[in-house]
Amino acid sequence: MAIATINPATGETLRTFEPLSDEAVEERLARAAAAFAGYRLTTAQQRAGWLRSAADVLEADTKAVAELMTTEMGKTLAAAEAEVGKCVKALRHYAEHGEQMLQPRPADADAVGAVEAYVVHQPIGAVLAVMPWNFPLWQAMRFAAPALMAGNVGLLKHASNVPQTALYLEELFRKAGFPDDVFQTLLIGSGQVEAVLRDERVAAATLTGSNAAGQAVARTAGDVIKKTVLELGGSDPFIVMPSADLDRAAEVAVTARCQNNGQSCIAAKRFFVHADVAEEFTRLFAEKLAALPVGDPMDADTKVGPLATESGREDVERFVSDAVEKGATVVTGGKRVDRPGWFYEPTLVTDVTPEMELWTDEVFGPVAALRTVADLDEAVRLANEHVYGLGSNLWSEDQGERLRFIRDIQSGMAFVNGMTTSYPELPFGGVKQSGYGRELTELGMYEFMNAKTVWIGPPSSRQDEGDTATASE
What we know:
The protein has 473 residues and is α/β, with parallel strands linked by helices.
């Protein structure tokens, strides 16, 4: 894929970039290593101050950055502005709490025969972040804010269709006053990633993206014994039980499926609805989906913009066609919008079965797959049969059902009476083929730090004698 800004609302190529040469990448890696040598010695207070400054700069740039993201990948302007605000919050969260997160963790010195024992978390070096286009600012900030607060330096390989957002991130941290080269954007193709990861000056990697990309990064990192964190695909279940507030559940279901034009790993994708309320919920869900305004993402009234790429829309069309051919029913939507750009109607497909690609694959577009179930046990069983385990949702007022859902659902996150989302205050990540490791909170910071055990013993007898002699003299 060319490194270029292509407006998905029009299909127009606005700007292209040449990938960095191998010589230029080598220079960037040398600069990252030199930057880490000094940056690791800065204090937590200094790093917190730079993060606060970055938050201020980003907040002031909200309008321009939001318009840039909308132009590059098609999210609505309102969603882009909200994404900027979320990044500002994350920067301030780590600025406020990072110093406490980095305090030594005391251990039981008596139990280990020490005068003092504790664990200190220390930075490890340059961390390579391979990031996707769907949340071009937030995905990168989930890595950058904790990594920079920890004392690491960042190397960002962003998706090839959001190069200007990627370059803005480098500029942001420079404008905020961070030391030179502490955060660098590498405009490189996917074929150059392996060499960067293998370089001894790169300590670890984090990737958010496809399973194929995750496998490639994990394979290389394993070969050179480097830590990775992977956030891969998701096909989150959204379970609706008879005790739920159906109107509210349907309203949130629309947002949970169509947020970011349906292009989110944690978007609800498979909807399991109890038979007693399936007819009513399906009606409400379909009506609310059909009412969503689709159009120019820069328009304040638009709720669903274009898909980010032409190939992405083709994938969505293939999934829906395959489901219909195998017996599914399209209740609303189900076709592309007749206008320039890569638009697709918000769609509800019912009678979905595990034989359909709409069920087995991750669908990146505003298409909901619904299946009626007899009870919670069936819903959880079907949800768990999928290879992914990122987020999950239950709508129920029954405490017993809630506890069983939390206990039995195979996912990294479980949300009850709300949609899956991410917060700096909560760990983010999945299980099974959705990846491993956690982002956000102190856990996300510790993923790329050395948890160093410190054991300090009592003074030696020779030292005691020396102290006594000195005292007598």
